[in-house]
């Protein structure tokens, strides 16, 4: 069986088959660092789990010429533990990355190992460059990467990668999706570096006056997997920039899913002029609330929450109104508490009651209300994760000397988001997204360890609960490791 470098060679297979023909059962051959080791493996009843549990005993090694070499009497001393490293999470993310590593090898042959290692770590923890080297040592390096992880080396790598925009585009093409519709998101991070001309004053939710860099990201609409990222000047937030970015991709049937900050008549006109579809919310003081009603018997369920809806054809687009009963109850309590404290008048309470727990989305697409709602919610989940990685970008601002290093930094963040989004898509397809977030799953997989012995053998400590989760996700990482 072959998996991630674990290969039982033909001569060892023949030896094992011969033992079985001779009536010897329960022998198992494992491979580590090119060496073959023989184990006696069987199952024993575990009274705690009330199920069978696999147990293995090391018997010796296999040699192409000598054959079976029994373990020595002092094997207990020779099998002292050399290292214990986390293996589950990195194997999980590597599997979710698909062909990403091969793409990076082709497009960035000098930097692919640093790019991949840094992206893996930032999926697990937004590690700043100064701690990257120490953090990397915690993990099982099963891909045999040899990345230079010092802050200086990584900083140079970011600059080199950032200058290769064409190579980045080739990676986007390599890992791109055939999804017909794409979603657009825009976020920002702040940098005071004088060498970054893209950092300019701009509007943001934090009301931060520091120079900011806008990051335009395009995702597959069905899975939320990012397929492209671009940096644009901090002062640019109009739809013309969005249209230019999409045109550069050469994609059609693109759906822009944006936040309420983009909803202006000018932006709607710009989107219509370039033929782009869109979905975005309006502010709660919009006149559309007076034109769109929520039906008492028009509803659907979202993650156990009742969502009522209404639909109305406006002059330029469709308006979809939603009322989240769970959110409404929370907002109502908060408003009445403020009234009790004298912070709101009765008139103010009545004004807010009309729109508690409600949202209106506008779109030039005629679709079901539930489809519009889910489309926006998918963007919301990407935005929340993007916020986490944005914090990492700002934490490393001191290493961003100029535009190209910032481009490289954003590209690494994109790679991390690509892996996490694929993980979330697997969780969704397994039907357990309501119970497990990507972060929850990574915590569970972090409990799997690779234990290397002084003899060179490697064993794996994998909790039963994790094996069950691995089975639900359909990944089967751990049965393969133990084969």
Key structural traits:
single chain, 483 residues, alpha+beta, 6-stranded mixed sheet, 4-stranded antiparallel sheet, 17 helices, 18 strands, globular, disordered N terminus
Summarize the structure.
With 483 residues, the chain is α+β, with helices and mostly antiparallel strands. The protein contains 17 helices and 18 strands.
Write up this protein.
The protein has 483 residues and is of the alpha+beta class. It is 40% helix and 24% strand. The strands form five sheets. Strands 11-12-16-15-14-13 form a six-stranded mixed β-sheet. A four-stranded antiparallel β-sheet has the order 3-4-5-6. A three-stranded antiparallel β-sheet has the order 7-17-18. A hairpin with a 5-residue loop joins β9 (212-220) and β10. It is globular and about 90 Å long. The termini are close together. The relative contact order is 0.14. Residues 1-5, 74-78 and 190-209 have low confidence and may be disordered.
């Amino acid at each position: 069986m072959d998996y991630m470098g674990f290969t039982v060679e033909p001569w060892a297979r023949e030896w094992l088959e011969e033992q079985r023909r001779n009536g010897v059962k329960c022998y198992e051959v494992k491979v580590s660092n090119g060496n073959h080791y023989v184990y006696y493996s069987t199952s024993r009843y575990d009274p705690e789990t009330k199920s069978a549990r696999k147990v293995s005993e090391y018997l010796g090694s296999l040699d192409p010429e000598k054959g079976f070499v029994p373990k020595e009497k002092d094997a207990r001393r020779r099998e002292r533990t050399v290292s214990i490293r986390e293996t589950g999470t990195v194997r999980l993310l590597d599997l979710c990355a698909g062909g990403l590593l091969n793409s990076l090898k082709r497009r960035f042959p000098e930097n692919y190992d640093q790019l991949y290692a840094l992206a893996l770590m930032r999926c697990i923890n937004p590690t700043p460059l100064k701690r990257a080297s120490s953090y990397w040592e915690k993990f099982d390096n099963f891909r045999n990467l040899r990345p230079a992880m010092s802050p200086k080396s990584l900083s140079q790598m970011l600059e080199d990668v950032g200058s290769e925009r064409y190579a980045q585009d080739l990676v986007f093409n390599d890992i791109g999706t055939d999804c017909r519709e794409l979603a657009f998101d825009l976020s920002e991070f702040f940098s005071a570096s004088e060498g970054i001309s893209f950092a300019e004053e701009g509007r943001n939710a934090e009301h931060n006056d520091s120079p900011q860099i806008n990051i335009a990201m395009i995702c597959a609409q069905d899975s939320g997997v990012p397929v492209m990222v671009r940096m644009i000047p901090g002062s640019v937030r109009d739809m013309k920039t969005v249209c230019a970015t999409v045109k550069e991709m050469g994609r059609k049937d693109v759906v822009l899913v944006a936040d309420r900050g983009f909803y202006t008549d000018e932006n709607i006109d710009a989107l219509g002029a370039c033929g782009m579809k869109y979905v975005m919310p309006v502010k709660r003081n919009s006149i559309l609330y007076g034109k769109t009603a929520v039906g008492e018997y028009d509803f659907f369920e979202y993650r156990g929450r009742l969502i009522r809806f209404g639909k109305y054809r406006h002059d330029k687009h469709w308006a979809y109104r939603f009322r989240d009963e769970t959110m409404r109850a929370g907002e109502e309590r908060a408003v009445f508490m403020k009234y009790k404290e004298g912070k709101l008048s009765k008139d103010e309470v009545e004004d807010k009651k009309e729109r508690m727990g409600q949202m209106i989305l506008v779109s030039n697409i005629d679709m079901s209300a539930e489809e519009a709602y889910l489309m926006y919610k998918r963007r919301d989940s990407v935005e929340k994760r993007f916020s986490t990685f944005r914090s990492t970008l700002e934490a490393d601002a001191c290493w961003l000397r100029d535009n190209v290093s910032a481009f490289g930094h954003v590209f690494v963040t994109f790679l991390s988001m690509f892996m996490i989004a694929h993980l979330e898509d697997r969780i969704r397809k397994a039907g357990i997204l309501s119970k497990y977030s990507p972060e929850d799953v990574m915590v569970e997989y972090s409990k799997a360890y690779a234990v290397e012995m002084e003899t060179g053998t490697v064993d794996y400590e994998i909790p039963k609960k994790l094996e069950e989760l691995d089975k639900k996700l359909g990944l089967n990482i751990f049965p393969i490791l133990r084969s």
